Fold these 2 entries.
Entry 1:
Amino acid sequence: MNSSGLYNGSIDVADNAISHGNIRSMPQEVAGSVELPPFYYLDNFKQLIDQVAFLYSDILDSDELAFIQDFRALSHSSQCLYVRLLSRRGDWFRRDKLHYSEIPDLDSALEQLQRERFISIYGLNDRTLHAGPIENSSSGRNSIDATSALSSEQLIIHSSEWLRLFTKPELLLLNVQGTNKNQRREEIQTLVLDALESQQLSLISFSEQVAESALICVFGEQQIETLTLLFFANGYQSLTDFVLRDLGIYTYEAYSLDKTTRWCQSREQLHNHLQFYQLQNDLGDLSQRDGDELMLFARELLTIGHASDSSQASHDSYAIHASKDDNLLRRRIDHLRNNIARQLERLQARENALQIYQDSQRHPARERRLRLLVALSKNDSEQYSQQAKILVREMLDLPWSEDERQFLASFVPRNFDKATDIAKQAALHASKPDIRTLILPDAQMRTDLGVERATQTALLIEYPNDEIHYCENLLIPGVFGLLFWDAVYASVAGAFFHPFQIKPADLYHPEFIAKRHSYLEDAWHKLELLDCFREKVITTFNNKQGTSNPFVHWGYLTEDLLNKAMQRIPLSHWRACFKFMLRDLRHHKAGLPDLIRFPADGGYELIEVKGPGDTLQKNQKAWLAAFANAQMPAYVLFVKDGD
């Protein structure tokens, strides 16, 4: 078991980061002003298991329920020690290296943990120090052996796991044949391991020559993995998120969590997600896999949606069976498919990549397929050419995202006969923005300030009575987040699974809008009158100050700027912007112009700044086209250096 997943790294690492103020670039003054309770890690772990027990008791198996019950029955010190051990890397630890000031009687805590089968303790010089009857505890907790402590022979079998606890100088004390101080530690460990396995070196000799410290093996990997997945609904978050909350790094919106909105509804569904993460873990670094291995993993994903009973799958198979309404798992599988296919492309296995992309329903699968089909058709293959044309029509008729629309607008005219219907249809999505030029009086200004700030300074010199603000991806998305706050954080199924979500899980997916129709309608109604619009935005701004929101950047927005923007920008323009954002929230929350200008005589202008050699990105083109369609004043300002 690799228990480092409980915290990202370990509690010790987190404690060190807290004392030095460097968790996610945390400001020193914030770190210095926050003092966490001495048992914060235990409180957080208890919150995790208590919430899982409350929400998912009906789908936990007997081992998981017993794990929670047995943990709750432990003494306070034993609970603290167990969570401490879980949060360190690996399963094995040396007794002489365990020192926790908040756990005064460590030996008593160890004794209870061993008696209740949360750990086992082994003395290398006396075969085993296992204490207490093993039959009194959960049978499934021991990840090494569910029925007995390790014999000396079994302990040697697992020596590759506990040998890492010893330093290079300690291993050299054994004087194993072939070892010397010039070797790397890993090479010395391999020779020691060989000596133990061949019985040239005994455990007793190891203990006498190196250390008499007992070894501790921690159990509970399977239960912890399941409980953590149920709590977070993903395989990457950990109790570190609790620490970031406790330190005030993030403040999360308060939304309700109950059984009606939980992410997992059955044991079968949980099994499927656990299988998926096991597959992902076994797959590892894609760049280290060859084409055959990648196809083997990809083929195991093809059974998605084809079986309703996951027990049909072989226990050694990676087959994933996702019900058609398990959108969370289907999205994750498609994301993995895309990654596998992209690596196959890099390996020049283009036809295999095509096959994998075809099974994915997630962007950019169709874009990559089209690129591959066009490339393959250049070898005079009519088959690939026809497939490409069919795919273009599908994408034009029902694009998955704005990214696809913009891709088609640029890619199709360059790769298909411009006289064809599909090329003409794709060209309709292209538009030419208003382009202007600015000559900076001093080239050093751009070097010192950056092109956006230099342009802002130059425009203020030219228009001294105007207001010009830097607003890239900050103002319009920020007002959107404030106006639609209630919709974003509505308690609907498939949205919130734990207390540490900045955004709902379905924010960037089609079901987001359908599930929140009434909340969205309420926000649209507030956009009918300026006073109602302004009241909602400013009230939310004041009431939710500092609460994490994927659209709101608190360090930038001010009440004065919000009032100015709502006064100058017509309601019809706000509506056009928000409708465009809702077409593709993932991509449309970015790509907005760098500057907003409020002329002294009224109105506003949105200005996209481009320095020498810079070009418009796809999402920037999309926004400029949306502004043009809504007759909003926006233009691209190409900046050149003066002589």
Entry 2:
Amino acid sequence: MSRQTGINRVVEFTFVAKEKFSPESIEFSARFVSPSGKIINVPGFWDGKDIWKIRYSSNEPGIHTFETACDPEIKGLSQQKGSCSIVKPKKEENPLYKHGFPFVKEGKIVYADGKNFFWLGDTWWMGLCKRLDKNGFKTLAQDRINKGFTVVQIVAGLYPDMNWYDHRGKGDGGFPYSKDFSKLNPDYFRSADWRICHLCDCGIVPCIVGAWGYYIHWTGIEKMKRHWKNIIARWSAYPVIWCIAGETIMPYYLSDKRDQDKEFQKRAWTDVAQYIRDIDPFKHPITTHPTHLGHEQLEKPEILDINMLQTGHGSHTSFEDTWSFIRKAKEAFPLKPVVVGEVNYEGIGEACREEIQRICFWGSLLSGAYGYTYGANGIWQINTEKKPYGPSPRGRSWGDTPWQSAYKLPGSQHVATGKKILEKTGWPDFVPCREKIACEKENDCIFAAEIPEKIMVIYAGPNAFNLAGIKAIKGLSPGKEYLFAFVNPKDARIVKKFTITTNRQGEWALPKNYWSMVPVFQDWVITLKKK
């Protein structure tokens, strides 16, 4: 049994069991040996009837050999030997296969070859359900990759905002499990396979959320581990990021014992998180989607590689939580990259429009966050044009905008434009420097970060050019020239630029009526580059 594939691309091996056993009672895996002698044990998965599969990938060219193991021993599954040839293609355009899978190194998220990875995510919590058909999935993915998104946060069947076995949670192949979670439904996961693979082939990393946090009360810890083992067996050979759970310690919406539930969920998900860390053969980055701060969701937060935040949906009233949560996360774990994983979905509550998206994106990235996930109300729950998602368990709907309209909302383009601007600045080495901006009064919508002696980037919200204007920029090199530019955060155009010269103290004072120098009364990105 031999196969060939490209570097970092998945190769699949199929095995047929010659004896009858309950799939839930079988432990099936393969021991791979690379040309350099590296050994990894890859779990296999049941794919229906008598079919079992192993998926493998590697960034090491050459012949990789394997031998399977099965407990109990079963003919057709035990001691099967084979190999695969990993080849380096002459030309590879997909960054996930060209540069290798993302991982965390020294507080940054990078590709395997060390190239910086810019986390610009989108929120498709229910993107594996059948309400989003294949053509719709392709449409969303193509739009996001065209704009420059790199991550999609997506839930593996145990969805938020519903009870278990709610008809809205069906995939193309039905529900992922029997109602008591004792029997896996491979038809569900086969339809999900195509979607996960399609994202990767588009160059988008699936950030796979195992379940919403409260499901662990219904599954119990051992069945949740079994669920995660199936996820890892099916998808760990792909360039993915693991998200342990959504709103990890938030009890079920109608729970009447919330404190007890939170305590149990924190303990239980810590156990599951360690299990994921132990069995994942490819050692993908691990995060968890929190109620507030990721590191507060587990008893052992050191398990997490990425510290994800959720900071509210209150439009401008969520701003201060966003910036303060970033500071708290950085103080708690300075070497864990911070990702703002949910804030102010565009259109939620008929609010949080594109200017709010720009403020949240720029405020986050210039305050020390390493990545940012956008969301649009209507996409996360997959509203359709004919039938909105409907009410949550509490009885209220979050909105009825169909995804076909929501993906065209301008905020998604504006945050993607922000990524485009930052990628030209050396953003991974930015140090927040808000203290270098002297203002008429404190203003939550003025942010700054810099690479000292090279570049400073300032984001100034609309009010910064009105009564709370910027008075001066401090902490620059004394008596030096800088190129000052106004960059439109909506389309990345440099609208106005000129040269400034700092004084002996390394400051540059803006004219008293400096707002008159601003091209248009809106928010702006300012870049200062040392000449």
